[in-house]
Amino acid sequence: MHGHRARWTTGAALTAAAALGLTGCSDDGGSPSDAVSKASSAAASLASQANEGLASATAEAGRRLDEVKNGVDARSSVRLGSPATASDGRTTVDVGVTNSADSTKSFTVQVNFKKPDGSLLDTVVVSIDDVPAGQTGKAVARSTHTLSGQVKAEVGAALRH
Prior knowledge:
The chain has 161 residues and is an alpha+beta fold. The protein is 33% helix and 36% strand. The chain contains 2 helices and 8 strands; from the N terminus they run ααββββββββ. Strand 5 and strand 6 (120-131) form a beta hairpin. Helix 1 (2-19) crosses helix 2 (32-66). The radius of gyration is 21 Å and the shape is globular.
């Protein structure tokens, strides 16, 4: 995760510098080092907000999984499609679950969005309710925020209940 944060912070610093109009020649009499310091501070704030967002999403996923009563591990029943970027910039992935039980069941699935190196970018939980015995239920998992770069999706947890 450390490498991911360093790259993100660098990009955020450049974005913050551009957004704040910070250049080597400042109209307010500040030095170039003041401009870099302000951009670095803004980037650190953005990185902190991103980390807080991921922590919040992870906590919410855990809470939703904890709410499931009498759930059994169903990871082997879940199939994920390929991640795609929706028109609003969020990452989506199709989720399919096959109900191998002999009665109608519901599923709660945690989908983790990760970078190719395995570092976690986001996590979401989807519910697929009332899947008839022997049938497949479908849902779409959608990231909680815009993700950049190559993103892969994997099942973090899945419960049949």
